[in-house]
Amino acid sequence: MKKEIDYKSIRSFDDLLDIKYGKKGEPERDEWELEYESFKLGVIIYELRKKRKLTQQQLADKCGTTKSYISRIENDASDIRLSTLMRIVHRGLGAKLHLYVD
Question: Which of 60, 64, 84, 94 is the 20 to 30 Å CA partner of 78?
Fold first, then answer.
């Protein structure tokens, strides 16, 4: 059964997420947050690639992977190993990768 959402009570994106997926720390919300981080990574790679005027094939060639793998990452359809991510960012995109843990 789908939840009815009182849109008038929503004041922020977090309010909407609380209603749809529960508060932070609840399993459904944690799963959404994890998937969102993966989605953001794909968007970041896509945006950097476009900014550098590279095709998926050119990026793949520069970092030793395949065009289809770059496409899957950009479209959030593939998990990515840290070593591969570092290669894409450093060799392929000429950028620096910074990781933070909260």
Answer: 94
